[in-house]
Design goal:
Helix content: 25-40%
Shape: globular
Strand order of the largest sheet: 5-4-1-6-10-7-11
Radius of gyration: 18 Å
CATH superfamily: Spore Coat Polysaccharide Biosynthesis Protein SpsA, Chain A
Structural class: alpha/beta
CATH topology: Spore Coat Polysaccharide Biosynthesis Protein SpsA, Chain A
Number of domains: 1
Distance between the termini: 43 Å
Length: about 250
């Protein structure tokens, strides 16, 4: 069984142009994400998938596997589909390139779930701890059935707390596990009315009746959507590095 990790990286961005190459302590952000993904034991290989020559050049300089894809793609899964036509695998795990703090353990759960259940589409969600995220339209909320399969995903708070406030809300994470067949399906079927309204790719599978397995994880990863986010992530990485240095000193002292 072959499982590969794919990190889509687009240079153009309305909120943060050139984001994958944004500097974090001397290295581009995409490098930090790549290093985290490389720690996943269940992956046979890791690739950056981009439509920009500048990102290709930087990846090659830093000895990172990179695939140049079409600049016509408008959605992340379209780019992953192109990768699936160039690199053969049983499962493609897509990891957002703007998450340099992504925990390898969360990615591993996608691979382990596939090995156990062989679902065509797998996604992660994590409990929302910040109340603001519940009403933030940029945060996709996901609800599941009793067996852990997605029922719906929305930018609105779901479910609505009419009869009780005793409920935990969960947000979608940008880590997908998809088979070659699932990617082909996505690329050859049109958006449905729900996907057009919510502007969320996961809904394409649900609208056509394809089950999406949802895995609950605990994650503290921070997405870099703005330069302000970049500052926050840089500070966290600096703190983590200091902790690692401190641990090494303690080990040497012993």
């Amino acid at each position: 069984m072959k499982i590969i990790g794919v990190i889509p990286a687009r240079y153009e961005s309305s909120r943060f142009e050139g984001k994958p190459l944004a500097d974090i302590l001397g290295k581009p952000m995409i490098w930090w994400t790549y290093q985290q993904v490389k720690k996943v034991k269940d992956l046979d290989a890791v690739y950056v998938a981009t439509d920009d020559e500048r990102i290709v050049k930087k990846c090659e300089e830093l000895k990172m596997n990179v695939i140049l894809t079409s600049d016509k793609h408008t959605m992340m899964l379209e780019r992953i589909h192109e990768v699936s036509t160039k690199v053969d695998a049983d499962l493609y795990i897509s990891i957002a390139g703007d998450e340099p703090l992504i925990e390898p353990e969360t990615i591993e759960k996608v691979a382990k779930s596939f090995k156990k259940e062989q679902n065509d589409v797998i996604n992660l969600r994590t409990k929302i701890n910040n109340p603001i995220d519940v009403i933030n339209w940029t945060t996709m909320k996901v609800v599941t059935d009793r067996n852990g399969y997605a029922l719906y995903a929305s930018r609105n708070p779901i479910p609505y707390p009419k009869a009780s406030l005793n409920y935990d809300y969960y947000k979608h994470m940008g880590t997908y596990g998809l088979t070659k067949e699932a990617l082909h399906f996505f690329a050859t079927h049109e958006k449905g009315p729900l996907e057009r309204v919510e502007d969320f790719d996961l809904l394409r599978f649900l609208e056509y009746g394809i089950k999406v397995k949802i895995i609950d994880v605990k994650s503290e990863t921070v997405s870099v959507d703005t330069p302000k986010d970049l500052v926050r992530v840089t500070e966290i990485i600096q703190k983590n590095q200091l902790k690692e240095k401190s641990k090494k000193k303690e080990v040497k002292a012993v």
